[in-house]
Prior knowledge:
It is built from eleven helices and 13 strands. By secondary structure, the protein is of the alpha/beta class. The protein is globular and about 60 Å long. 48% of the residues are buried. Bound molecules: threonylcarbamoyladenylate (TXA) and magnesium ion (MG). The site of magnesium ion has 3 residues, from loops.
Amino acid sequence: MTASERRGPDVDRAVAVLRAGGVIGLPTETVYGLAADAHDLSAVERIFRVKGRPTDHPLIVHVPDTVAARAWAADWPEAAAVLADTFWPGPLTLIVTMDPAATTAERCVTGGRPTVALRVPDHRLAQRVLQEMPGGLAAPSANRFGRVSPTTADHVLDDLGDDVDYVLDGGPCQVGLESTIVDCSVDPPQILRHGAITGERITAVLARLAPATGPSRAPGMLESHYAPRCRVRPVEDVETARTVADRCRGTWRILDGRTDPAAFAHDLYALLRRCDDDGIDEAVVVLPADVGIGRAVRDRVLKAAADHVADD
Ligand code: TXA
Ligand code: MG
């Protein structure tokens, strides 16, 4: 089957592939996921294989609504209730204690952890698939481990090729960065990954939130991540970007994240992929200010840059 035959907007086909134990590219409002039935052990194991991801690195479970999310949870803390009511469906993942009666497949999804990450995506096609699979779909971002997340169906096919059975094409992702993750299994809750649901918006609805200090407890958040092949050089202003570019020995491109941070969040991964496609050596990224969505953009760019720190 050619790449073009393995992609399209056919929800029925996507559901048929999932029911047969296959893996699909699933469009969401954040990034594309590599999805499989979260109750099917061999399908979940295939996600880890295709992604090249360590099996103790847990996956997010995508569900159609809060009722379906609660079926995975041992309890539903007040913070989870408030956040789910306020922001679901949307780009927010909640971590709660997992139902102790979880099956082997379900424990494989969480990498053997006692907690589970749950998300209700706000995307028309994802919702239609989830209505047919209300038990939940395990889905990490549909890139190979450690690489830039995909924000179009083409990106998924570029990365995963024949390893994905079908890519449900829902167009370019609206947000462009992975969901915000809030750990509600601890008290007070803690933001583990920043995203489009900003720290400011979460603080506005929660009575208490742990200060974001110290290393992140989301496994996989510490290593270099989100990395293109080109070297990423984060700078704080355009003037410095020009100086860095002038000193660059190879080809370079300046990416300006300061002027319009939300638009930049949307475009960031596509821009980094384009640098690689065009054979650019260095992407000099002007970071947005550390507020709102700017926080999430800075986080991803600094992680992408961490891959090359050792070269300095
Ligand atoms: O926007 C998103 O969240 C996308 C789309 C596809 O939904 N998914 C995504 O998945 O970014 P992934 O696997 O690339 O990132 C999930 C993150 C990982 O850093 C993982 O360690 C963390 O969530 N995570 C998952 N379950 C967890 C748990 N029980 N405790 C702590 N961290 C967890
Ligand atoms: Mg990822």
